[in-house]
Amino acid sequence: MEPSWSLHLLSEVLSAFSTENPDNLRQVLNRVAESVDAEVCAIVGNVHIECCIGLADEERRLVLEMAESRPSSLSITGGTLCSCWAPLGAERQLMVGRLDHPFDLEERSLLRAMARSIELSLRMLEAISAERQARRDASNQARHDPLTGLPNRVLVLETLNSWLDRRPGLADKPIAVLFIDVDRFKWVNDAHGHAAGDELLVHVSGILQSAVRRDDLVGRLSGDEFIVITRSSSREGARDLAQRIVNAVRRPPAGAGAELSHSASVGISFDAPHDTASTLIENADMAMYQAKAQGRGRFSVFEPAMREQARERLDLEETLRHAVEQGQIETYLQPVVTIRTRQLLGFEALVRWNHPRRGLLTPVHFIGSAEDSGLIEAIDLAVFQCATEAVARWQRLPGWRHLRISTNISARTLTSADLVQRLQDLINTCGINPAQVYLEITETSFVDDIQATGTTIRGLQQMGLKLAIDDFGTGYSSLLYLKRFPVGLLKIDQSFVADLGIDADDEAIARAIVSLARALGVQAVAEGVETAEQEKRLRRMGCECGQGYLYGRPLPIATVERQWFGGVKALQTRS
Question: Within 10 A of 522 (CB to CB), how many other CB atoms are there?
Answer without folding.
Answer: 20
